[in-house]
Write a structure and sequence with these properties.
This protein is of the alpha/beta class. It has helices at 14-23, 25-29, 38-51, 61-69, 102-113, 127-137, 140-149, 158-167, 181-193, 216-226, 232-246, 249-252, 263-281; strands at residues 2-6, 33-34, 77-81, 117-124, 172-177, 286-289.
Length: 291
């Protein structure tokens, strides 16, 4: 059985991606792709990731995973989408590393799922906007702990991606940037599902409401439905044109005032992030999806 693990990152539209896939569960199921609700598997996967072979779920793990998700003989691909598998939200960063506890969790999951064909999917985000978002979402104690240890210029995604390759070398790793999601949304749905439902993904354009003015997403859907793109490049060109006209900048703005960073520091973090993306793109066994 193929298993697609969509592991994050937190605060990068994971719930919307999972929600859209769930909206198409019946159509995907007709092609042997199962998208179970997060509640059915999350606690089991977290316990397995943190306890490994000592987990209460370890004996007959695959059978138990099939049981809780509803996978059966007709299931060729199982999609498990939840960033909590790699870390709880308070543990996203220790101030110097992103997902510092992921190494042990990846190694544990590999032991339990190693006989399956596993793909890892992960969306990264510029620390210049990511850390303010993490701090805003954190509870007081967690926020103070991050702020006390924060060395923002040391934060990189590449060590986490390298750990995925090191500790799960058989798994294919696919990475994309949150900043590129508007142009890659449909493509990532297709990649995670490994197929396209007949008639396309239902409600796929709802996500664009999160970045467009009212009515913009509906207009984009209407246009692309009436004039289907000839290829992915054409789709992205149309999306870019609609974003130029209907993007709601207020929905994209991230309030960095929770930090004491000035524009110069934000520019530095962005430059470091771009270098980090280039490093990830050069890694063997990693597919970096870009527009």
């Amino acid at each position: 059985m193929e298993i697609a693990l969509h592991l994050g990152a937190h605060l990068t539209d994971v719930s919307q991606m999972r929600g859209c896939l769930r909206d198409n569960a019946d159509a995907l199921g007709a092609q042997g792709v199962l998208v179970p609700g997060k509640r059915s598997f999350l606690n089991m996967m977290i316990d397995a990731a943190t306890q490994g072979m000592d987990s209460a779920y370890a004996p007959d793990f695959t059978d138990r995973l099939r049981e809780v998700t509803g996978a059966d003989a007709a299931t060729r691909r199982l999609i498990l989408s939840a960033p909590g598998i790699l870390a709880s939200r308070p543990d996203i960063t220790d101030g110097r590393n992103l997902y510092p506890d992921a190494t042990a969790r990846l190694a544990a999951l590999r032991k339990l799922l190693g006989r399956h064909e596993v793909e890892l999917f992960f969306c990264i985000r510029n620390p210049a906007t990511y850390i303010p978002a993490v701090l805003q979402a954190a509870k007081t104690d967690a926020r103070k702990a991050i702020e006390t240890n924060l060395r923002s210029e040391e934060l990189r995604w590449s060590p986490l991606i390298a750990d995925m390759r090191l500790h799960w070398p058989e798994a294919r790793v696919t990475v994309w940037c949150d900043e590129d999601t508007p142009f890659l949304w449909h493509q990532m749905l297709e990649r995670i599902a490994s197929c396209t439902p007949e008639g396309g993904f239902r409600n796929a354009y709802d996500w664009y409401d999160s970045i467009m003015i009212e009515g913009g997403a509906a207009r984009l859907e209407s246009y692309l439905t009436s004039a289907p793109p000839v290829d992915e490049a054409h789709r992205q060109k149309v999306i870019a044109a609609f974003l130029d006209k209907f993007c709601d900048e207020a929905k994209l703005d991230v309030d960095a005032s929770i930090t004491d960073w000035d524009e110069g520091h934000l520019d530095l973090l962005t430059a470091l992030y771009e270098d980090d993306v280039d490093l990830i793109a050069s890694m063997d066994g990693v597919t970096l999806v870009q527009p």
